[in-house]
Each structure stands twice: as C-alpha cells, then as structure tokens.
Amino acid sequence: MTAARTSAPASLYRRLLAWLLLPLLGLGALMLAQAYIGAREASDRAFDRLLEASSLAIAEQVKWQGDRLWLDLPPAALEMLTTDAEERVFYAIYNASGDYITGSARLPSGPERSSGKPLHYADITWHGLPLRLGIRAAQIDDWSQRERFEVRVAHTREGRERLTLSLFQGSLARLALMALLAVGVVMLAIRSALAPLTRLRRAIRERDPRTLTPLELPLPRELAELRESLNELLARMRRVRANQERFIGDASHQLRTPLAGLSARAELALRQDDPDIWHAALQAMGATSTSAARLATQLLSLTRLNNPEATAELRPLDLSEIARAATRNALGTCHRAGIDLGVETPQAPVSVAGIDWQLEEALGNLIDNARRYGATRITVRVLDAPATLEVEDDGPGIAADQRLVVLRPFHRIHQDGAGSGLGLAIVDGIARTHRARLSLHDAHQGSGLRVALTFSRDRS
Amino acid sequence: MTIRRLIGRPRQRAGRRSWLVLIWLAAVWLTSTPVVAQNSPDAQLHYASSPASDTAASRLVVHGALDVPLIEPLLDDFHRRYPHIELTYRNFTTLEIYRTFMSNAGEVDANEATADVVMSSAMPWQYRLANDGYAQPLYSESARNWPDWARWRQELFGITFEPIVIVYRRELAERFGAVESHADLLALLERESEALRGRVVTYDPASSGVGYTYAIEEARLSPRYWELVAALGSVDAELVGTTREMLVGLAEGRYSIGYNLLGSYARGFVRDHPELTIAVPDDYALVMQRLAFIARSANNPRAAKLFLDYLLSEAGQRVISEQTPLGAVHPALKGDGSASALRARLGGALRPIPLSPGLLATLDDLKRQALLSRWMREFRRGAATQNTHPSLRKTP
Fold this sequence. Notes:
By secondary structure, chain A is of the alpha+beta class. Chain A has helices at 2-6, 12-61, 75-79, 158-205, 221-271, 275-306, 319-337, 356-372, 423-433, and strands at 62-65, 68-71, 89-95, 100-103, 119-126, 129-141, 146-156, 315-318, 340-344, 351-354, 377-383, 388-393, 436-442, 449-455.
C-alpha cells in the first residue's frame, strides 16, 4: 500500500491488488502454520502408538518376584520403538515411590500428570537430546501382591520429523496450487471490475472539449453515479455558458444604444450651422457618454465580482462606519433631489469580515436605485445579530413575484428609466462575495421597498 | 564350579546405585573378552608425524580393544597414507574403554587421554554409547555406502565380520562324523553323551560377557537353543571364560569339541594346529562385529573422520582381510573370511548380531539375571536327567 502511495500516481489496480493479496498472503501463512501443526500432530499420533505398544509390551513382562519388581525385558519391545529413521531409544522402570528399578536411562517423570489415563506423553530434552516420552502407569495384580509401577519409554524425533515433513510437503503443494489459482482469479477479477472505468476514461478523453452534451454509456451502478455527477456538472456548465452568452449579448446591446445615439446626434448636429444647436447637442452627447461610461464601469465591476478566481481578501470592518460613509457620499445628490436620507446605527460597532469599497458601492447602488424610482425618504439601517445592512424607501416598491427577476442583469422594471439595470445585479454579486444573503421585502410602513443584506454568522 | 558361584551370589538391593551395577556387569562381561585377556605391556603404539608434508600436522588418539598385533598392520598402512597425522593407539580392555570414555564424556579438553575414535568388540556397550549421543556422524562416501546391517545412524560402524564357530578335533570327526550345524551338535551330544562327558567346552554366560551375549542372541533365534543348553548340561560341559582357553584346551587334547568360539581367533590358531577343524554352522551362525565410532567430544574430529573413513575404505578393509585374521565387511572384498565370501557359502544362515535397540536389553541387569537363571536351570536339568533318569531323556 505504502509503496503504491509513494510512487506518485496511486494506481487503483495496484491498490486493489495489494488489499486483496496481502490478506490472502496472511491467510496463506496462517494455513501453512496450521498445516505444519496438523502434520506434526498427525505424526505424533502415529508414532505415539509405538510408545504405547512398547510400554505395554514391557509392562506385561513386569512381575513380582522375590520381594521385588522383576522384569524380563523383551528386546522386541525396544526394537519396535525404532523405525527406518534409527531413533535413539531409552527405557526405564520406576516403582510406586519413584525409585529407579532398571532401564537404560533415568528418564524424568514428565512435566505434568493428567489423571485417569494410564498413558501420557511429553516432549522432553534429555542430555541435550529432544525426546518424545511415553509414561505408562501400570499395576501388578497378583493374588497377594498389588504393586504400582511406571514404564517410561522414549525415543528421538527423527522418524516423527520425517513423517511431519512429508505430510507437510503434501499440503504445501496443495496450498501452493490454491495460492496460484487464487492470485490468478483475483487478478482477473480486478481487471474485469476495472474495465468499465477504462471505458469511461476513454469516453471522456475522446470527447471534443467544447461539447457539453451529457455522457451516454452503460456503466455499473457505482460508476453510473460518477457519470450522473459528471453530467450534472456538464449541465451546470451549459447553464453558465448560456448566462454568459446572454450577458455578453445584453451588454453589447446596452453599449450599442448610447453609442448609436451619440453618432446620430453628432451627424444631426453637423448638418446644422447654428452654434447653439451644436452646444445643445454637445451637452446631450456629454450626458449620454457619461451614462455610457457609468454603464461600462458597472459592467466591469460586475465581471470582476462574478469572477470566482479573483476573490479579494476579506478584512474585519464596522458596518456602521460603512453605512455612514455611504450616506455621506449620497447626501449631496439626495439633497439636490429633495430626498430625505437618514442613517440608523446601533451604539456598539457591528463587525463583519468584508471589503469596504464593495459594501459602500452596494449601499450607493441601493440608495441610487431608491432615488431613481421615486422615493422621497431613504433610510440606511445597520442591525446587529445577525449583522445586516438595510436600505428602506417609501417609493412604489416591487411586487413579490418580481423580486427574484430584478436581480438579473439588465432587467429594468420601467424601460424608460435612466438606470442601466445592473445596480441590483452588482449588489447581488457583492453579497455573494461576502457570503451574505440579499433579500427584498416590503417597507415597515407604507408601500416602499426594503432591501436587506444579511451576513452569515460564519465570519471566516 | 561356576553354577555354585551364581547361586550363591548375594542379590542386589533395590537401593543400590545403578552405575555400580553397570560397572559390575561390565567387569563380569569384559574380564573374559578374548582381546582383553592378553593385555600386553606394549599396549600403546605411537607414530610421530613427519614434518615434511605440506599439510598441517594434526594429532589423533584411538582407543581400542584390539590387540596390538591385530591392529598394527592397519595403523602402519594408515600412517603411510597420512604421515602428517601424529597417531596414538592405546589398547584397553573393553571395560576400561567404557570407563575411560565415560569419565571424559562431554568434556572437550586438550587432555591426551580423550579418545577421538573408539573401537571395541563389546557391541552392547558401543551401541549404548552411540545411542546415548556420545558419537558423531560420518557422512563420507564409503560411510554412506556401508551395508545397512553393519551400520547405525551413520554413527556406529561394524568394521569386521567374525562368525561364531564350532571347533573340534579331527579324531572326533573320524569317530562320529563331521559336525556342520547346531542340529548335528545337538544330535551328537544327545547320542554320545557318555563318550563326550567332560570333553565339551563352551563359554560360561555368567562370567563371560561375550558368552552372555551369544546366549541371549541364540535364545532369541530359536527355542531349540534351550535343548542344546540342556544337552550341554547332560555331558557336563566345561564352562570357561575365553576363546583362547578353549583353543588351548582343544589343542592339548583336554576337549574334543568347543562350542561358540570367536571365529577370527580360531582361524589364526587352527592354522598352526592342523589337528583342529573349524566349522561355521550352516543352519545358523552368529556373527560378531567390532564397532567403531567417532567421539562427539573428539579433540581432532578431522583426523578422526579420516581414520574412520580409512577403516571403511576398500584399502583399509583389504588390510583387515589380508593381514589380520579378522573378516572384512566391505562388499567389494571377496577374500577368505570376508563377509561376501561367507555369505556366498552360507547365505541366509549368517546371523550378524543386529545393531538395534535389542542390544540395550542385553545390558539390562534384571534381564541378565532372568536369562542366566533360565540358562542354569536348563543346564542343570540336562545334567540331572542324564544322571538319574536316562530313559526319560527326550530324543529329537
């Protein structure tokens, strides 16, 4: 896994292979260990029969004779302990109190005694030799005499090891074959499971980069989800492109109208000789070009606001100060138009993260809008918890079903007005930059409009 | 008489120390082994290493129960082949070998007395040492190809092949016919018990370890052995401790027939005494082997392996076959007295004493007492029937 991660592009194929083969490897090791233990137990069981038979043959020859235990040791009892592997053989007889009677080695009594069974086995090391020891507890049942004794026989492990090895080799071959099959199957399975991914990749790569049509190819469920997500993204991109195209069309249309007006006016004036007419024409052209310049400025700022990759850094600032500055800027214009402009701020500063000039522009646009649409009284208001900027007027207001549409660029409620139709769209863009919500409401009193910019609590 | 000695022997108490018993047993066993009987003063042979050779000089200590005249040709030849090895051979009785070995067992030191290679004819004792893990294995090519019946675990090797034989005087064959088998002997003893009274000699199993080993092996081979023991009892057979005593008695004419003599000694002796005849029984013949192993605690394991490998090589076996009365085991050698020649002549009748855990039973004290009491019972039963109720005697 780590290897796949360090070599730069992590391969899904390799990752799957690793996650499948590593557990498989672990499982294989476990099975090998189990097979070895099993083989060892099987060979011990087989060879313990020899200890059993030998100890029985010896025990049967133990007699009570002349006030002592007596053994006429049958040589065959020792010979049966040895196989082709020519094991070393040891035997001993002990009486009930643990005294050595006879034997070829003083064999220990074994580590623990499991009661009940007459015979038990132990693996011991005697003088550096690993031995398998069999201990038989027996008893002489004579007419007059009842004497307990123990036959201990032992031999070295060569024969057992040979048998273990041959049994283990058998299971080793079987396991190796299984492992080979498993690896092959896993690799095939991964390949076939990843085949649709390759098809998807090929389908995407082969597309014309300008096409935004949805992908149509049959895929398994997991990849179908990916395909749907891709198609949704493509759909969004189509919508965005349509919006952009419309915006460009609208913008060029908007700019063409004043430019066409300018050239018509200039042609008209040039046909006259009266300097007064020229003067009037120049005045009119000056006003038109001013509004065209303003339109261009607004288009620029809207484009800038809509560019998601050019986000300016947000700094903490006080909303009350913004509101006061915007009010100060608009005060002259409003005064000349005879509009009552006021500002309401709370005592404590209302702090948000934002860009001061953008917020000032948003407030300026809102005041400007209210002024243009016939308000006589405009209130700029700052609210705390949640931090909100509000501009309320007593103008005609906007019907509830129009309130979403007016946010679109170039939308004007009254086609005859001097506005560009970009004011609210710019405010909306600024609101999005600040992750604030722009909402339109009825005024608290009367018929006016109340526009609110509500900042989210998250001030990061 | 031996019988009385056996009956009168005080019984061992249960609380006794077992090694005392072992030593007592070994003493009884080995004081009578033929090799040991003449423990000559020159019980040590020494060969200095020649510094000329480019190989680094090393040393080798061999302990054996083989008389110097028997071992000398082998050692000479070995020294000629490996002059850089400083070779020391010490001759012991088989008991001394066992005792010396056990006192040094497990201690690897520079002590001169520590044996690198141990050779002895006391098969059960050698087997027991190897079984208890005091030997180290040899995997040379000749060791791997050594016949299975003369080898145990690559650790213990039978290097000689010595059948147990019957030796009789020529005039016995002229009078009663040749004795070629145990069945012949049994028939002869039962038929001519009066004529042979006191003129038959064999091992005393009670005082001779070798005799005891033969008795235990023969009892395993055939239940008719006990009839033979009874028949020996019925002719009041003389019971002695060594092959040499039997041979000398036969040569002097005190005995007409000797049963269970060590063939290798008999061969050499009979060559100088034409009035004697050797018979390897053709129904079954026990075969004894001298067993050699490399001590686990050997100070010079490399030299020890070279030496044992030499003993098992065709060259070493050829020396055994041609320059000593001992029989060679190596299957490539077909000379007189070799295992191959004897097998060709006697086939399945040869019964080499198997290198198996059965030998451990031979060393069991209680087993020994049980067998000896049975042996003496059979022997005396034969004597009694002969003396009191000749008419009731069984006939084969």
